[in-house]
Design goal:
The structure holds three protein chains of three kinds. Chain B has helices at 12-22, 100-113, 120-127, 177-185, 211-220, 226-230, 239-243, 288-307, 317-321, 328-336; strands at 4-8, 26-33, 36-41, 67-75, 80-83, 93-98, 129-134, 160-164, 170-174, 190-192, 250-257, 260-267. By secondary structure, chain B is of the alpha+beta class. Chain B has two domains: 4-201, no CATH class; 211-336, no CATH class. An eight-stranded mixed β-sheet of chain B has the order 3-2-6-7-8-9-1-10. Chain B has a four-stranded antiparallel β-sheet with strand order 5-4-12-11, with no helix packed on it. Chain C has helices at residues 16-28, 50-58, 79-96, 114-131, 135-141; strands at 10-15, 37-42, 63-68, 104-108. Classes of the chains: A alpha/beta, B alpha+beta, C alpha/beta. Chains in contact: A-B, A-C, B-C.
Chain lengths: 267, 337, 149
């Protein structure tokens, strides 16, 4: 991203923001999150194809929110997450400044939610070919094969909750699995517990998931669990014509309705 | 008299595993599927492939499972009927392809589970499991076993350690009674070993930091802001604790239905916010920096001090699997400087 | 010893104002219908948590029925509209995950439709009876044993 470092330094120097949340070189060929608070740290900022982690998850992390107004280096899914968080009243119009990358690989400063909204709506948003293929492959399987596929995947799950922790839309301070009076879904890794956990998380994300796929990237057991909320997101787009993360004051597909919504499965 | 060396020909390994399997032991080895290497039960003809750095999950699962039923109960008006853990039901297992770091971790786990009280379930599982280790002829940038007084050919924790020689045959170091019992099953397969310098067949791994300095510096720097800085990116999931061969923190949960239930032990992680949350609402480790500091101190200060064992074997899994690239070796180096 | 014939266990999650009243009408009209169903009363279909359906299966149900007021007739105005969207998404997810969709039945049954309720229950009961018990799900829900692997 051209001018990323200069822009970041300028934002810090002029005290428009107190921290720039971005990406820096990590171990081996990885990148990792960086929280730059001075010009020297800004020098480490970079942006390339490896920068997929959704940094919006840090916007409500106590230790970072306490620093003050942030600037955030944002790819499209991160911007969508920001808009969705704003729609859910977790962020306000002037909560942050986003640094996005335009089609000419130049840094674009988006000063508030209105500007972020305009930028996102000017972009083409579609699933990656890889994800689309995987979705189609699973949909094409007969029912028993689909069940066996997901059972095999869920059995790998160690309930580390990396999926939940890296998801910007999972911000509940007390998650359903952590309630034990009464115990609704077990927090431990069991056949049933894993099935229920992934079902519950997917349904709680319905209409809110912005399809960044980071839940699956984070999973240490390589479970393609991003396909679940992503599949629902595609269905919602097709059936109700809405996509989350496009407007700063949008509603949610599952908390709105139309009197003539489809009901082709109802007896 | 252990320890002693033998030569196990390449083709003899599947034969050995077949014999062990016929004896009623479950054979468990790392299997690669879709980029994930995980310990799975394997069957004849035991055509195993050891071409991986190390499995994504550690060997601790066999002696300290993710979820374990401790006992079951049925409540009635007058009494509670308890069905205790069935020790006889624990199967006999042989783990093959256990990397030296994982095997060494077993010793630390044993120290934790035999501290106070002595855990009978853990001990029973250990007693019924034989560990056939496989030394490392390659490593990656995340490995740091040599920095914690271990190495790619360490014999700690293994019952038999295999080292692959040039011709594909294995130098077999018989290290314990359980190892001897395996040899006794098929003595013909364990031939006389020529003098072989094991070092020639091991990965070369330079030391990344001085372990002794860590112990001092951690204590010195207890109140340093460095922990908060390092933990800034941490999202507080359980990945590092769960893939670690030594992390043994667990939670106790109940699974009930009507008047029946079972008490279950499951993995827990000190990185999670709720780990130290009191019922009063107070949380003594309220920010991620404190939780990160606790992780480092537990492994490099409290465990060596109190149990006289290492809290880290340098396998590097925590760093490889961490979704936000928290690199343990790098952070330790930073603290020492 | 004669083996007991398999009778499906069906749990019905119904709303108080329409379907529950409709089921009452079925009874007062003396219409016979399958006893395989256990009815659970909710104030509104909008209150029905999707997890409850899965919990029913985990606890031994072979089929579930979810039923409430017709659209535009909800006692709370819009509960069933929200439920409809929720069920649409939940069904899609369950189907994608490979659950046996024939075991889920969603209907609108009003307080006047005593006959319809009997039909819904009878048809569902027959269908599930033909499918047999939902062993695939029950195997997953079985209490964990000492040795899982």
């Amino acid at each position: 991203m051209k001018n990323l470092i200069e822009i970041s330094k300028e934002l810090l120097q002029s005290e428009q923001v107190k921290v720039v949340i971005g990406y820096a070189k990590g171990s081996a060929n990885r990148v990792r999150p960086l929280f730059a608070r001075d010009a020297a740290e800004c020098e480490k900022l970079l942006f390339d194809a490896r920068c997929v982690q959704n940094l919006a998850v840090y916007l409500y992390k106590r230790e970072i929110a306490a620093m003050g107004k942030p600037a955030i280096v944002a790819n499209i899914p991160t911007l969508r997450a920001i808009l969705r968080l704003c729609a859910e009243k977790q962020l306000q119009e002037e909560s942050l400044i986003a640094i996005a990358c335009n089609n000419d690989n130049e840094a674009v400063v988006l000063k508030n939610m209105t500007e972020i909204e305009a930028f996102v709506q000017s972009q083409v948003i579609a699933l990656s070919d890889k994800d689309r293929e995987l979705l189609e492959k699973i949909k094409a399987m007969p029912q028993a094969e689909r069940w066996a596929f997901w059972q095999k995947e869920f059995n790998k799950c160690i309930k580390c909750y990396a999926c939940r922790q890296t998801c910007p839309l999972c911000y509940c301070t007390e998650c359903t699995v952590e309630k034990n009076k009464p115990q609704w879904i077990t927090v431990a890794s069991t056949k049933l517990g894993n099935l229920e956990w992934h079902t519950m998380r997917t349904m709680h994300l319905a209409g809110r998931c912005i399809s960044c796929g980071q839940c699956a990237e984070a999973c240490p057991m390589n479970i393609p669990l991003h396909l679940l909320p992503m599949m629902l997101a595609e269905e919602i787009r097709e059936i109700y014509g809405t996509m989350p993360g496009l407007h700063r004051d949008e509603n949610c597909a599952l908390s709105t309705y139309k009197p003539n919504d489809q009901e082709n499965f109802i007896h | 008299m252990v320890p002693y060396n033998r030569l196990l020909k390449k083709d003899s390994l599947p034969k050995l595993l077949t014999l062990l399997s016929e004896q009623g032991r479950q054979i468990i080895a790392p299997v690669a599927t879709d980029g994930l290497v995980a310990y799975s039960r394997v069957e004849a003809p035991f055509a195993l492939d050891f071409d991986y750095i190390l499995p994504n999950t550690s060997v601790k699962e066999v002696v300290f499972p993710r979820t374990e039923k401790l006992f079951a109960y049925v409540k009635s008006k007058e009494s509670v009927e308890v069905t205790d853990f069935n020790f006889d039901a624990i199967p006999y297992k042989v783990m093959v392809g256990v990397r030296p770091c994982d095997a060494a971790g077993l010793l630390s786990l044993s120290a934790i589970f035999n501290w106070d009280p002595k855990d009978p379930i853990f001990n029973a599982r250990m007693a019924r499991t034989t560990f056939i280790g496989m030394s490392c002829n390659k490593s990656d940038e995340y490995c740091f076993c040599t920095s914690v007084d271990l190495g790619p050919g360490s014999t700690k924790g293994s019952d038999i350690l295999l080292t692959t020689l040039n011709d594909g045959n294995y130098l077999a170091e018989i290290l314990s009674e359980k190892g001897e019992a395996v040899v006794a099953l098929a003595p013909a397969l364990f031939e006389e070993a020529q003098m072989a310098d094991k070092e020639n067949f091991l990965a070369v791994l330079p030391v990344k930091f001085e372990k002794a300095k860590i112990f001092e510096k951690l204590k010195e720097k207890f109140d340093s802001p460095i922990f908060g800085e390092q933990a800034m990116a941490c999202v507080g999931c359980g990945t590092c604790a769960y893939v670690c061969p030594i992390c043994a923190c667990f939670d106790i949960q109940e699974q009930t239905k009507g008047n029946k239930g079972s008490r279950v032990r499951c993995w827990d992680s000190c990185g999670m916010k709720l780990f130290t949350l009191h019922t009063s609402g107070h949380n003594p480790r309220n920010n991620q920096g404190q939780r990160w500091r606790q992780r480092l101190m537990h492994k490099f200060s409290y465990m060596p001090e109190r149990l006289d064992v290492t809290g880290c074997v340098g396998c590097g899994r925590c760093s490889r699997s961490c979704p936000v690239d928290m690199n343990m070796a790098e952070h330790l180096k930073e603290i020492v400087e | 010893m004669l083996e007991k014939e398999f009778r499906p266990k069906i749990v019905a999650f119904v709303c108080n104002w329409c379907t529950y009243a409709g089921a009452d009408l079925t009874g007062t009209s003396r219409i016979k219908y399958s006893p395989d169903v256990k009815i659970i009363r909710f104030p509104c279909t909008g209150r029905i948590d999707f997890m409850l359906l899965l919990k029913a299966f985990a606890n031994g149900a072979d089929g579930v029925i979810v039923s409430g007021c017709h659209p535009n007739d909800c006692h709370y105005t819009s509960g069933n509209f929200h439920a409809r969207r929720r069920w649409t998404m939940f069904r899609t997810l369950m189907n994608f995950m490979g659950l046996e969709m024939e075991r889920f039945t969603f209907t609108w049954v009003s307080a006047a439709e005593g006959a319809k309720w009997a039909d819904v229950v009878n048809e569902t009961s027959e269908k599930i009876h033909a499918m047999g018990p939902y062993t695939a799900y029950r195997n997953v829900a079985r209490e964990i044993t000492e040795e899982e692997s």
